[in-house]
Design goal:
Length: about 325
């Protein structure tokens, strides 16, 4: 069992997304960065989608109430274990042994937006519609459908002693920063070309639901770009780039709705959606146009590369 000492900005339980329920208005949801969560779970000797704690930006702290093996992943700056009177610096590229009463502190992130803590066996979470991730807009999944709070005690499904030392080889260590590159497929060619010719900044409206893109605005180019607000609802997904009346494009995140009436500029390719889980307000963003067949090829290559972590093809690992 782990006790939450400090949630940082936001902490939730994330695990299996909600597959096959979009026709009921339920988005995919799940971890913001599924690859980082999969790496944390690999270190903890779990399946890639075992329930983990997702901390946002300001880090967090937990206390172990028994001996346990954990894995950490994401843009971790510093992880420190307080054991009695000693402070121990963690090597977060391998699994970590916590002893009873240890306090693990994850410092605030300098780059990226989400870090993951996995425990051997996975945490217990509420199952709903074949998923168990926290989806805050509907208050379902995770820990009773809500964000974690200081003082919460989270139980794991099973615990036994393991002696395996897992580590992340250098070729699988993801790089994180404040400047991001994403590939997109166009729905409106002119608007998508305009999007790819400029540097964009993530605005203050930034959350798991989506990200406002700022500088420059599209509103001055409405006629040339042929972006009519016809009010018709269309299917949208994580990675859809909408054009709202504000003139600032809006990139939908993992917790976004399933339909929307704003014009659609394009979609981030599936292979790059995990990058959205590590962008935050103030970061810069560049887009590169790709054709659908190129996007599929990139996705298949990335799946094969990342799935080697688990020694088998795993289509759900990226999203």
């Amino acid at each position: 069992m782990i006790e939450i000492i400090n949630i940082g900005l936001l902490a939730t339980l994330q695990g299996k997304p909600y597959r096959g329920s979009r026709h009921l208005g339920m988005p995919y949801a799940g971890p913001a960065d599924p690859i980082s969560m999969a790496i944390a779970n690999k270190l903890a000797s779990n399946a890639y989608d075992a329930v983990s704690i997702e901390f946002s930006m300001l880090g967090g702290a937990v206390k172990a109430h028994s001996d346990m093996i954990i894995g950490l992943a994401g843009p971790i700056d510093t992880a420190i274990i307080k054991r009695g009177y000693n402070n121990l610096l963690c090597d977060h590229y391998k699994n970590i042994s916590l002893q009873k009463n240890d306090v693990l502190t994850l410092k605030a992130l300098r780059t990226g937006a989400h870090i993951y803590l996995s425990i051997y066996g996975g945490f217990e979470a509420t199952d709903y519609w074949n998923g168990n991730s926290t989806f805050l807009p509907a208050k379902i999944g995770g820990h009773n459908g809500r964000a974690l709070r200081n003082g919460d005690r989270i139980f794991c499904k099973k615990q036994k002693k393991i002696d395996t030392i897992n580590h992340v080889p250098k070729r699988y260590r993801l790089s994180y920063g404040n400047h991001h590159l994403m590939r997109i497929c166009a729905m409106n060619e002119r608007a998508a070309n305009f999007l790819s010719q400029h540097e964009w900044y993530i605005g203050r409206q930034s959350s798991r639901i989506g990200y406002e893109l700022q500088k420059p605005k599209l509103s001055e180019l409405d006629k040339r770009l042929n972006l009519a607000h016809d009010g018709l609802s269309r299917a949208v997904f994580a990675g859809t780039i909408q054009y709202p009346p504000s003139g600032n494009p809006f990139l939908l995140g993992v917790d976004a709705q399933t339909t929307g009436g704003y014009p659609i500029i394009g979609h981030v390719i599936r292979a790059d959606r995990h990058i959205m889980g590590q962008i935050k307000s103030g970061d810069s963003l560049y887009f590169i146009l790709q054709k659908p067949h190129e996007a599929r090829g990139v996705y298949e290559k990335k799946i094969k590369y990342v799935a080697r972590i688990y020694s088998r093809p795993t289509l759900g690992l990226i999203g």
